[in-house]
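Section 3.1: Structural characterization of target chains.
Under the original work plan, the team committed to producing a structural model for every single-chain target entering the pipeline before any wet-lab resources were allocated. The record below documents one such target. The sequence was received from the expression subgroup and is listed exactly as submitted; it comprises 421 residues.
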Amino acid sequence: EVDLEERLHELDLRSDSDIPDVPPPTDSTPEILKRALSGLSARWKNWWIRGILSLAMISGFFLIIYLGSFMLMLLVLSIQVKCYHEIITIGYRVYHSYDLPWFRSLSWYFLLCVNYFFYGETVADYFATFVQRREQLQFLIRYHRFISFALYLTGFCMFVLSLVKKHYRLQFYMFAWTHVTLLITVTQSHLVIQNLFEGMIWFLVPISSVICNDITAYIFGFFFGRTPLIKLSPKKTWEGFIGGFFSTVVFGFIFSYFLAQHQYFVCPVEYNSETNRFVTECEPSELFQMKKYSVPPLLQAVLGWETVNMYPFQIHSFALSTFASLIGPFGGFFASGFKRAFKIKDFADTIPGHGGIMDRFDCQYLMATFVHVYITSFIRGPNPSKLLKQLLILQPEQQLSVYKTLKSHLVEKGILQPSLR
């Protein structure tokens, strides 16, 4: 027993050097690009590859925006699954020699369970009228949380049954690995979709701000970078960090101005049960109506303006852009530390010159959480539409009771006149 305790203590003190090497990702750059850029140095070759693929991804992103909010939701789901796959695969490769039973099957099973729970919650919140028409869906929604918990318990019991005497500790490491990965990917992608339902502008401005900051920080760092920013990312420089900040704030302010002019971007995304389509039509709220603001005295001398017309949302864009520039990069630094811990350059080789999908969205997940917290703290008030949808699910007797209580309350407040008997 003493020898066993000593061995376990030695395992606890293992350093990073004891982590097995993960095979480096292969070069997935298309042959046509390799031949076209063969005469350039490695530095400039990477510049052109990143630039061309960035333009291709941005073009594809604009196409999906044009196709509508439902396609954006599918995009978020696809990115979530791919990011989850990349992180889980790293764990599998690092500990592949142990040949853990059921590890990969259980990892994907837990992903399905958690997605079933979150997307079921979304359906219950935003598609109540649609659910009300179908009895099968009513049963699933009414007992949704119980079904979700039962599915999770099934996976939990399968994990306990898969435990092998020689690999207990490692299997619990992998169990924790799976759950942390679920927390990072599924929970955050659910918040992204919640932001999207508030209006496409709450989805596009934050994501575009992170993309802008990533691109401009890279450009400023590439041409002017001299001072290292953080040891976790040796290529990051203060010049790139500062240049990216100012560029992102300006971009967010201008981009918000153009988006705020269109109902398609500012209206909450709602489901029309009659047409079975998502619609974005509404009377824009005060956030998206032009207002006149007085320019601070210090800036009046510089700009020569006493007042300026702008959308209130543009003020909020400063907060979003600032977070994307100053705090958002720490998501990337966190990912860099993770990759260094496991001796890998990128999460995968999905995108030539960029690495894996997770390499491109490490900052986006942190941004999604901030936007959700920002909306619930400073923007969103009581939602009559959502409350009405919930009332429509109630039984007629319950609806009548709510009506009588509300009417009595309004009469007491003097808002309604008491009815004559």
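The longest strand covers residues 233-237.
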